[in-house]
Amino acid sequence: MGSAAQEARGALAGRVAVVTGGGRGIGHAIATTLAQQGADVALLDLLPDVAAVADQLGESTGRRCTGVLADVTDADAIAAAFDTVADRLGEPDALVNAAGIANNTPAHETDPAVFRRVIDINLTGTYLVCRELGRRLVAAGRPGSIVNISSMSGHIVNLPQPQAAYNASKAGVAMLTKSLAIEWAPHGIRVNSVAPGYVVTDMTRQVIEAQPERSAQWLRRTPIGRLGTPDDIAPAVAFLLSDAAAFVLGHDLVIDGGYTIV
Ligand code: NAP
């Protein structure tokens, strides 16, 4: 297809994308942008009404969208979810891992089960879903692309909240991304990550509402003078998934309004 025709259809036309955590927040904004750029999109989430959210996305974008309930920590559930997506939309060749949880407790008071849960969802979950797409693409000899949502917390220690488990999980996601990028480059599968700064979603809204002095501190340390929105993150993810980023591998793109520079 010529580049003008491709542009007209959208940079992601013909792609089938899975977005974990796509039911709300950053994942949902990403799913919306991918559909707007021509991809058919599956939302893989724990949100009970994920099917209805996907139907609405399909209506608003004109793309085929589907919602599948699955826990990213459950390898069998992920395999079944990918089978469902393949039946409904065709075999996926794009993946965004946005499912994640945060935890703010002092390290010396954190229940080991809580620490493990954060690592299990944010890091192991990301690996398990990458693994599922990777093994399907390698077996089929097909190319694809993956973007994992890491965090600026994989680069810096956030203040003032204590979140050692979260920070460690996100540093792990960035290194996992680089490792998979190198292993799968010979198979034509590109893996990158995007590292957001503070973005207003349900995850951060609780803090903004309950502890305004905490979010005021975030704001003071953000040179651009505002917190991010999910729409600040989504276009970069779409770019990294697309062929426009054909030579970009293992990159962790920080999008933080300048927070980590100063
Ligand atoms: P959010 O609004 O809380 O959304 C997270 C989504 O992930 C929810 O739909 C949630 O479903 C889903 N999820 C959680 N655990 C899951 C599991 N085990 N299996 C499947 N789905 C699961 O969070 P967000 O702020 O959009 O964050 C999205 C990603 O960006 C996360 O990885 C987060 O760490 C990262 N991030 C966020 C910020 C920020 O400032 N917001 C900054 C840097 C990085 P349920 O609600 O049904 O559990």
In short:
The chain is an alpha/beta fold and 262 residues long. The chain contains nine helices and seven strands; from the N terminus they run H-E-H-E-H-E-H-E-H-E-H-E-H-H-H-E.
Task: Please tag this protein with its features.
Rossmann fold; 9 helices; 262 residues; 7-stranded parallel sheet; alpha/beta; binds NADP nicotinamide-adenine-dinucleotide phosphate
How is this fold's topology laid out?
Blueprint: H1 3-9, E1 16-20, H2 25-36, E2 40-45, H3 50-61, E3 65-69, H4 75-89, E4 94-97, H5 112-140, E5 144-149, H6 164-184, E6 189-196, H7 202-210, H8 212-220, H9 230-241, E7 252-255
Parallel strand pairs: 1-2, 1-4, 2-3, 4-5, 5-6, 6-7
The structure holds NADP nicotinamide-adenine-dinucleotide phosphate.
How would you sum up this structure, described in words?
- By secondary structure, this protein is of the alpha/beta class.
- It has a single domain (11-199, 232-255), classed as NAD(P)-binding Rossmann-like Domain (Rossmann fold, 3-Layer(aba) Sandwich).
- Helix content is 48%, strand content 15%.
- The chain contains 9 helices and 7 strands, in the order H-E-H-E-H-E-H-E-H-E-H-E-H-H-H-E.
- A 7-stranded parallel sheet has the order 3-2-1-4-5-6-7, sandwiched between helices.
- Helix 5 (112-140) links the parallel strand 4 and strand 5.
- Helix 2 (25-36) packs across helix 9.
- The longest helix has 29 residues, at 112-140.
- The chain starts with a helix and ends in a 7-residue tail after the last strand.
- The model has no long low-confidence stretch (mean pLDDT 95).
- Bound molecules: NADP nicotinamide-adenine-dinucleotide phosphate.
- NADP nicotinamide-adenine-dinucleotide phosphate binds next to helix 2, helix 5 and helix 7.
- It comes from Kineosphaera limosa NBRC 100340.
- This is Putative oxidoreductase.
- Belongs to the short-chain dehydrogenases/reductases (SDR) family.
- InterPro entries: NAD(P)-bd_dom_sf (IPR036291), Sc_DH/Rdtase_CS (IPR020904), SDR_fam (IPR002347).
- Keywords: Oxidoreductase.
